[in-house]
Amino acid sequence: MSMEVTAWHQLYSLNNQTERRSLSKQTLRRIAAFARPHRKRISAFLLLSLVMAALAVVAPLLAGRVVDAIVKGEPFGVVGWLAALIAGLAIAEAGLGLLTRWMSASLGEGLILDLRTAVFDHVQRMPVAFFMRTRTGALVSRLNNDVIGAQRAFTDTLSGVAGNVVTLVLTLIVMIGISWQITLLALILLPIFVLPARRMGVRIARLRREAADHNAAMGNQMTERFSAPGATLVKLFGRPARESAEFEARARRVRDIGVRTAMNQSVFVTALTLVSALALALVYGLGGFYALTGRLEAGSVVALALLLTRLYAPLTALASARVDVMSALVSFERVFEVLDLEPLIKQRPGARAVPEGPVSVEFDDVRFAYPSADKVSLASLEEVATLDSRGGEEVLHGISFTAEPGQMVALVGSSGAGKSTIAQLLPRLYDVDSGAVRLAGVDVRDLTADSIRDTLGMVTQDGHLFHDTIRANLLLARPEAAEAELWDALHRARLAGLIESLPDGLDTVVGERGYRLSGGERQRLTIARLLLARPRVVILDEATAALDSTNEAAVQAALAEALDGRTAVVIAHRLSTIRAADAILVIEDGRVVERGTHAELLAAGGRYEELYRTQFDDPAEAAVA
After folding, report:
1. Which of 316, 411, 453, 532 has the most neighbouring CB atoms within 10 Å?
2. Which among 119, 599, 588 has a CA at the least distance from the CA of 335?
3. CA neighbours within 13 Å on the CB side: how many for 252?
4. Running DSSP on this structure, what letter comes out for residue 24?
5. 3-state SS string for 431-463
6. How far is CA 585 from its chain centroid?
7. Which uninterrupted H or E stretch holds 400?
8. Could you read off the pLDDT of 63-75 as tens digits, one per residue?
9. CATH code 1.20.1560.10 region(s) in the chain
10. Which of 140, 162, 123, 142 is nearest to 42 (CA)?
11. b/e for 478-503, b at 16 or more Cβ within 10 A?
12. 363-380+390-465+537-624 CATH pick, 3.40.80.10, 3.40.50.300, 1.10.10.10, 1.20.1250.20
């Protein structure tokens, strides 16, 4: 490694330095656990790194021997043999370098695979509250930047420390054996090489942190403004000139920081390259004097000069090794921080499947409070200094009702009364604090997650779709479904005609969150997905609340197909849509304040009658009815 390359490497390491912290034995044990499946490859990788380090010291000695052979006028056969040996050594180094790089890449990518899979699987088990609090970008960063940072501990830092120690020891032994005076001179000049790097590294690190903050702010601004809802909001209420000025100010600051950083780096590398050149000049000067006075061979002077370049590289790398180790340790700890978040929803040992046949739904004196932030989130993932201390207050107070197989139970009431919370307890997005939620008479906490998913189907108000094809969004419900089954579900959802008219048919990409479709089309597509899943229990959470009368009529016709013969829990804003329900529950402040059929509740003249009368005094609502 040349002096200039070494300078850049040293500067890069110091740019990424982290706060000083002690090595955690628990973290090291967990790292060892992740490394254990790769221990054979790690051992082979370290062995190859040591061999490469040893070969790096041999080459300068052979070069010095060639010079001595030429000066002494030895036969060409000796020079040719040495040249062939140097060539063979170069070929061996090149081959071992490729093999080492392959092993490094294989080991690093294998570790990335293990870490990413572990984090991804763990995150999927987290409750919905986790995703409601966490910033998606911060979570994705753990799967990308921090996992890659942890991977460097095995590929760069591990091999670098081992190889550099061997290279340093061997180089020092050989140089001292040739001339301890010149070796001492080289070591005296080392602080001139290392200390400026640390001061410059701190300065550049400060600039890069500021640039990273501005880049993150620009990234957030672009992410929010370039999404379909964000772009619409800016066009409706934003001021494009102000948005542009704010973005330009950050981009301009990043440009200025980039120029200053580049100049600081160039000055630093140029100065250190000059220092290394002066060191070489001193070696040649003192070595030449020793050679001319007969105290040193000419080849030894050349060997010392070449070895000097092999001495500074490992010394400077080892000087920053602690920074590299701490950086990798921080990355591991940030990954483990996510893995240490305990999922609130766990499958019990011995959990069983939902019994076959028609399924009843039962809520038995259910009480529930949303979990506090410290149970489901991390301040670093929310990008806040401290977690919100609110939470833990009971929002459902003794909810009890039963929907027999094939019955429809409707939930109505004011916004925020707890209706959607009740719906989220059925698919076990949350667990109750007391009481029980049962499917077919079995507590959902005693059922397997897969069987609950197979039994329940849910349509929410927003009708979320992935940025993928219509086919892929449908197959999410049943990956093994045949083409005919897809079209059957679309026909029943009153959407087949539209899909047939599209140029790409089922392979049409719906766009982010399905925004290439209208609101009614998105809802009917989610209903088609529900029909394809063939659930025995259907949950509708205000599935038509955001639709106009025309779209609602089409969606209601599709919902009739979805509800036919199935147990249903329906949350309705428009009371006209649930008049045929077997039972209607009026929910207020997390309690059931009224229950009965549509006719019974109207006759009772209570809260339901008030809600119904209020809606039908509205001409638009009356038109929908």
Report:
1. 411
2. 119
3. 6
4. P
5. CCCEEEEEECCEEHHHECHHHHHHHEEEECCCC
6. 42
7. strand 394-403
8. 888 887 887 777 8
9. 3-201+300-339
10. 162
11. beebeeebbbbbbebbbbbebbeeee
12. 3.40.50.300
Q: Per-residue pLDDT tens for 284-312?
A: 888 888 888 888 888 888 888 888 777 76
- Dist. CA 279–CA 256, nearest whole Å: 35
CATH class of the 3-201+300-339 domain in this structure: mainly alpha
Q: Which two tokens stand for residue 203?
A: 């300065």
In the block, residue with structure tokens 């993150």: 216
Instruction: Pick the closest to residue 40 from 103, 95, 98, 94 (CA basis).
Output: 103
**Distance in angstroms (rounded) separating the CA atoms of residues 398 and 365:** 4
Residues contacting 300, CB < 8 A, separation 6+: 64, 68, 178, 179, 287, 291
Phi-psi bin for 590: left (phi > 0), alpha (psi -120 to 50), beta?
A: left
pLDDT class of 443 with cuts at 50, 70, 90: very high
**Structure tokens belonging to residue 331:** 């990355």
Domain span(s) for CATH 3.40.50.300 in the chain: 363-380+390-465+537-624
